[in-house]
Amino acid sequence: MTLQRFSRAAAAGAAALIFSSFTTPAHSPLTTDVRLGRDASEARVVVLKPEGRSAQLLLKDAQNRLLLDCLLEERQVKTELDLRLSTLPEGTYRLKVTDAQTVNVKEITIREIPDTDFGPERIISVKLIE
Fold first, then answer.
1. Which of 4, 55, 60, 91 is deepest in the core (most CB within 10 A)?
2. CA gap 52, 104 in Å, rounded
3. Is residue 40 included in any domain, yes or no?
4. Residue-wise pLDDT tens digits, 52-96
5. CA 64, CA 36: separation in Å to the nearest integer?
6. Distance of CA 123 to CAs 20, 35, 51, 58, 112, Å?
């Protein structure tokens, strides 16, 4: 399981945040990475897939309501998409990316902590499900 956690308080003292990066040859399977921004207001979704295969990216909330539906065309090998997490309320969300052979599912959890030593805090975690 891969877990990335971010909070404004942690970032205040951190010199840099390190997230995974990757490159994918044309014959490699579909891969999805979620990179959290420094201020917990957005996340960058990076999808690498083989050329010649289309893929679909879906974002759903805990009630299974569709928030985002994006088709990644066959000729697109790398897609980067910014999600504005600041517009989403506290809760759990599922990001699912599929092609004909692979399913990637990431769970994004947003928590609000009203009273901390640093004031209100927004905690974002990203976990690999499939």
1. 55
2. 18
3. yes
4. 999 999 999 999 999 999 999 998 899 999 998 888 999 999 999
5. 23
6. 19, 14, 36, 22, 6
| Residue 106 counted as domain residue | yes
CATH number (domain holding residue 99): 2.60.40.1930
**Residue 79: inside a domain, yes or no?**
yes
Chain CA centroid to CA 80, Å: 10
What DSSP designation does 9 have?
A: H
pTM greater than 0.85: no
How many domains is the chain partitioned into structurally?
1
Q: DSSP string of 93-125?
A: EEEEEE-SS-EEEEEEEEEEE---TTSSEEEEE
With residue 8 as reference, give the H or E element that holds it.
helix 8-13
Q: What is the DSSP letter of 73?
A: -
